[in-house]
Specification:
With 249 residues, the chain is α/β, with parallel strands linked by helices. The protein has eight helices and ten strands. The longest helix has 15 residues. The radius of gyration is 17 Å and the shape is globular.
């Protein structure tokens, strides 16, 4: 495990309240969509990277899939274990950062959803290296031809929000597309303020990065929680969804 970072501390504190968030109320429908898009068959193995409190991992396990959930936050994993016990399902839980973890054996599919890991780098880290490491580990964890679904912040929305004043203040760099944000979070009633950085990706950049990491990109859709579907990305929605497969090598 790498040294603790701000996201680990943040999610440890928010873990008991996370499942109260409005965005968590569409889990069954989201998993039904994932099963279809990933082409999962009975008994398939699935890796949930940045699994949080396990809402997708547990629902996948409930449907008979073999699931491993990986998360940086021990607090989130503790809540995930409680949720799995309450649901009566078995999930393998792993405490690890997505930029460090590779599955012991290749899996049939990987999901990385709802801001679970991708772009979630510590302020002291290189956000581009962080994201590339995650994609490299996902590629190594997948069997050849295995499916990958990623949802991540929509760069178009963020870019439409920044101003010249942000550039002057050093909170947005138009050369690197790295943004430093001060956000007031309210997750299930638990409030907290945090400064963090993200590398903003336009959709062509994201597709290029995935292809450079060994993935064949098949679809790019709107990925905002609760609105998943085979539909075009809207410029101002929160997240984008990319569906890809590992190359055959």
């Amino acid at each position: 495990m790498a040294a603790r970072n701000q996201w680990e501390d943040f999610y440890d504190g928010h873990a008991p309240f996370y499942d109260r968030g409005v965005f968590t109320s569409h889990t069954a429908g989201e998993v039904e969509f994932l099963v279809e898009v990933l082409g999962l068959t009975a008994g398939a193995s699935v890796l949930d990277v940045g699994c949080g409190t396990g809402r997708h991992a547990i629902e996948l396990a409930r449907r008979g899939f073999r699931v491993t959930g990986v998360d940086l936050s021990s607090g989130m994993l503790l809540q995930a274990m409680r949720n799995a016990k309450a649901a009566g399902v078995e999930v393998e839980w792993v405490h690890a950062g997505a930029a460090d973890y590779v599955a012991r054996e290749p899996v049939d599919a990987v999901v990385c959803l709802c801001g679970g890991a991708f772009t979630v780098a510590d302020l002291a880290a290189d956000p581009v290296a962080h994201d590339r490491a995650i994609l490299a580990n996902v590629h190594r964890s997948l069997r050849p031809g295995g499916a990958f679904v990623l949802t991540t912040p929509n760069g178009y929305r963020r870019i439409r929000e920044v101003t010249d004043a942000d550039i002057a203040a050093g909170t947005f760099d138009p050369v690197t597309m790295i943004q430093v944000r001060d956000d007031d979070f309210d997750i299930g009633g638990a409030k907290g303020r945090m400064r963090y950085q993200e590398r903003l990706y336009t959709l062509p950049e994201l597709v290029t990065l995935l292809r450079a990491s060994g993935f064949a990109v098949e679809h790019a859709w709107g990925g905002t929680a609760g609105r998943w579907g085979r539909r075009p990305l809207e410029l101002d929605e929160i997240e984008v969804m990319v569906v890809a497969h590992r190359d055959s090598s």
